[in-house]
Amino acid sequence: MKAVRNIRLCTKDCLCLFVCPTGATNTDDGQIDASKCLDACRACVDACPSGAISKVPFNFPPQQPKQEAVCAALRALLASKANQEAAMDAVIGSPASPVEAQLARALKESIRIVAEDMLRESGYMLPQSEQARAALRGMLESEQDADFPKDAAEELLRMLES
Amino acid sequence: MSKYICTVCGYDYDERDGDKSQGIAPGTKWEDLPDDWVCPICGADKSMFELAGAAAQAPAQPAVTEHAGEERQDARHQAILMSNLAKAASKQHNAPMASLFARMEAYFNQRSAAEGDMNSAHKLLNEDIAARYVAAFNTAREVGDRGALRALTWGEKVSKIQANILRRYLKDGDSAFENDNVYVCEACGFIYTGAEAPEICPVCKVPRFKFNQIKRGA
Ligand code: SF4
Ligand code: SF4
Questions:
Q1: pLDDT tens digits for range B102-121
Q2: In sequence order, what are the residues at sequence separation of 6 or more whose Cβ sits closer than 8 angstroms to the Cβ of residue B112?
Q3: Does A48 contact ligand 2 (Cβ within 6 A)?
Q4: How far is C-alpha B133 from the chain's CA centre?
Q5: Residue B123, SS3?
Q6: Closest residue in A to B124 (Cα–Cα)
Q7: pTM for the complete prediction?
Q8: Of A69, A76, A83, the CB nearest to B73
Q9: What is the per-residue pLDDT for A150?
Q10: Strand pairing of A53-56 and B3-6?
Q11: Which residue, judged by its Cα, is nearest atom 7 of ligand 2?
Q12: What are the tens digits of pLDDT across the range B43-100?
């Protein structure tokens, strides 16, 4: 596990600098240097008076199996949300007024968040999950345009499979 | 004296108490509330309220339109999947992974077809509320999927707010929002129209700093 600091909560008391045995907490960018952070240590987490540091695991447990019936119901909603988002894109492309453009942008953002949540609960919570990796492999295997970021997909699979 | 419950955030309007924040005197009947009165917590209008204790009506099952265009939205489905995983990577404090997913998302966003208008989106949302959420809730409850129930609870409330904004816009046009700022909760998608974003999100309870203001640009 590695320690991470929530900059929003950090009150700069610097106790984490004092307790860290390796100097991992002492960085210029405000984040903790993962390469120096010790897997088994959590001295800074316990010392921080603001609850600003937590440890995130390197490995996550496998996704709990999802019932196909639930996934199907969520997919029906997702399809509807995708079509709603497409409608908002059409409005944003040629809005009748600045107010309509503003509402369409807000609605698009909002619809996207709801749609992501439907996916998250149908088995795509973690990038490390087998489903998410299968989706990336599927993208690499299907026909894509010339500007498909193949290197990004391959790099992601390497990261996720390690 | 009756109570009316906001179906978005759960606030209840008690006729006995009125609503001091908007100058509504105690004892004001629901019917006598002005049409422009809105929920003091989340900004939903009167149509989003239900009489407390009213028997839950059996939801009508309207015909759901065919998923015409679903195929054309394949790229958009991929884009949504990639933006979801980018957010998941950020939550694991993995910035390099998040930016790789963001590049994938950008590719699929560019290929997502734009089609429809405010009317078609409104229609789809009303179908979601009347049928798709009802079906999904039933299924998730049957198998006891708590994660899905949480997502559906938030999603249904946010969809109601979205539908309500579209309804107002389709009815009154720009004038319905002329004096409002617009904010979106980045955790659940709740949209607030009014002067200032609420202190906590009425749907998912995150604090105000999680709201994005959507400016009225050119
Ligand atoms: S101990 Fe906590 S509050 Fe203090 S500098 Fe470190 S992270 Fe910030
Ligand atoms: S967990 Fe230990 S090694 Fe890692 S940053 Fe905190 S104090 Fe330093």
A1: 999 999 999 999 999 999 99
A2: A85, A86, A89, B73, B75, B76, B79
A3: no
A4: 13
A5: helix
A6: A80
A7: 0.82
A8: A83
A9: 95
A10: unpaired
A11: A20
A12: 888 988 888 876 454 444 555 554 444 456 789 999 999 999 999 999 888 889 999 9
Q: How far away, in angstroms, is A41 Cα from ligand 1 center? A: 16
pLDDT of A73: 94
- What ligand is nearest to the CA atom of residue A48? 1
Q: Is A119 in the pocket of ligand 1 (CB under 6 A)?
A: no
Query: What gap in Å lies between CA B208 and CA B196, rounded to an integer?
Result: 9
Could you tell me the distance, in angstroms and rounded to a whole number, from the CA of residue A144 to the centre of ligand 1? 46
Q: Nearest residue of B to residue A140 by CA position? A: B104
- Residues of chain B in contact with residue A92, where contact means CB-CB under 8 angstroms, are 114
Contact indicator for A82, B72 with CB cutoff of 8 Å:
no
Helices (H), ranges, chain A: 15-19, 43-47, 68-93, 98-120, 130-141, 150-161
> Do the Cβ atoms of B81 and A135 come within 8 Å?
yes
Tokens of B145: 């999927």
pLDDT tens digits, one per residue of A88-97 = 999 999 999 9
Distance of CA A123 to the CA centre of its chain: 14
- State pLDDT tens for residues B178-193: 888 999 999 999 999 9
Predicted confidence at residue A40, as pLDDT, reads 83
Which residues 51-110 on chain B approach chain A with CB closer than 8 angstroms? 67, 69-70, 72-73, 76-78, 80-81, 83-85, 87-89, 92-93, 96-97, 100-101, 103-104, 107
Burial of B35 (0-12, 13-18, 19+ CB in 10 A): exposed
